[in-house]
């Protein structure tokens, strides 16, 4: 057995993808995850890398990620099967020196490519490295049911959606004080949606794709998962509240300010003013 299968990052991807499937967020081959790896993470497992790794060109410039390693989910792979065959459903890629493509160093043993949303992942990684001083290493995309539902009935506006989600669960302002960015519907898998997502990721740790899904980021797989899970729970509460005729009382702006002061966070100003 390859030693790399026992690495913390392969085990972490197995757990994250299976947890996401159990949540109902990743039907069929829906969703994708990428985790930025350090040289120190992979150095002990390089004997498991391909002797002649396949090179794949990119249609965008990712020079800022040159020589960086990522473990990513594969295109067309079912999250429910990652636990059964990680070597088929996952890949470790290394961005080339020019930032014009990448090498498949491990995984995808039956062929194929990394996630079709790789453009969105790489552009988001670039901005999150800058915004978090290198702490954020995970980009996670899924089809969280209630968050998607809300994009059909709420105004597609960052301040509006953020405020509604904050009001449905007290912890939300603390977990994502920077709010939820919103990207209008766009064709998935293209460079344009990658750039639009990265623009929102520069300001928000959560980004909603209207009528499609959500992107979350964080330093670890657990933190990115927990971020999405918290927002999705709040969205579920909101769906129930709306189905019962709407809210009769809620958390006020002044109370949100007290909450922010208590936990030492700076909430999105536009959402506080809603």
From TrEMBL:
Keywords of this entry? Cytoplasm, Lyase, Metal-binding, Rhamnose metabolism, Zinc
Q: Does the keyword Zinc apply?
A: yes
Instruction: Write the protein's name.
Output: Rhamnulose-1-phosphate aldolase
Q: What is its EC number?
A: 4.1.2.19
The catalytic site is made up of: 117
Cofactor info, note text:
Binds 1 zinc ion per subunit.
Gene Ontology biological process terms, A to Z: pentose catabolic process; rhamnose catabolic process
- Cofactor (UniProt): Zn(2+)
The compartments listed are: Cytoplasm
The pathway where this protein functions is: Carbohydrate degradation; L-rhamnose degradation; glycerone phosphate from L-rhamnose: step 3/3
Where is the Class II aldolase/adducin N-terminal domain positioned along the sequence? 11-239
Tell me, in a sentence or two, what this protein's role is.
Catalyzes the reversible cleavage of L-rhamnulose-1-phosphate to dihydroxyacetone phosphate (DHAP) and L-lactaldehyde.
- A Pfam family annotated for this UniProt entry: Aldolase_II
Keyword Cytoplasm (UniProt): yes
Q: Which domain of life is it from?
A: Bacteria
Question: Which EC class is this protein assigned?
Answer: lyase
Binding of Zn(2+): at which residues? 141, 143, 212
Q: Which GO terms describe its cellular component?
A: cytosol
- What is the species of this protein? Gilliamella apis
């Amino acid at each position: 057995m390859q030693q790399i299968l026992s690495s913390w990052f392969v085990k972490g991807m197995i757990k994250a993808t299976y947890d996401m499937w159990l949540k109902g967020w990743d039907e069929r081959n829906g969703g994708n995850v990428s985790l930025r790896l350090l040289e120190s993470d992979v150095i002990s497992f390089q004997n498991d890398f391909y002797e002649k790794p396949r090179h794949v060109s990119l249609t965008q410039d990712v020079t800022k990620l040159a020589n960086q390693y990522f473990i990513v989910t594969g295109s067309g792979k079912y999250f429910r099967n990652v636990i059964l065959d990680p070597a088929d459903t996952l890949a470790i890629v290394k961005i080339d020196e020019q930032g014009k493509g990448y090498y498949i160093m491990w995984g995808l043993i039956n062929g194929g490519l990394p996630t079709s949303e790789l453009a969105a992942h790489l552009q988001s990684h670039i901005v999150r490295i800058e915004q978090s001083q290198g702490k954020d290493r995970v980009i996670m995309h899924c089809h969280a049911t209630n968050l998607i539902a809300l994009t059909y009935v709420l105004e597609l506006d960052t301040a509006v959606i953020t405020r509604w989600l904050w009001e449905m669960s007290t912890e939300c302002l603390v977990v994502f004080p920077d709010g939820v960015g919103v990207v209008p519907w766009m064709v998935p898998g293209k460079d344009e949606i990658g750039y639009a997502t990265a623009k929102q990721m520069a300001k928000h740790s959560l980004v909603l794709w209207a009528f499609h899904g959500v992107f979350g980021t964080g330093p670890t797989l657990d933190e990115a998962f927990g971020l999405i899970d918290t927002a999705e729970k709040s969205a579920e509460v909101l769906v129930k509240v709306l189905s019962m005729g709407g809210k009769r009382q809620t958390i006020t702006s002044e109370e949100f300010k007290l909450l922010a002061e208590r936990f030492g966070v700076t909430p999105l100003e536009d959402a506080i003013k809603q």
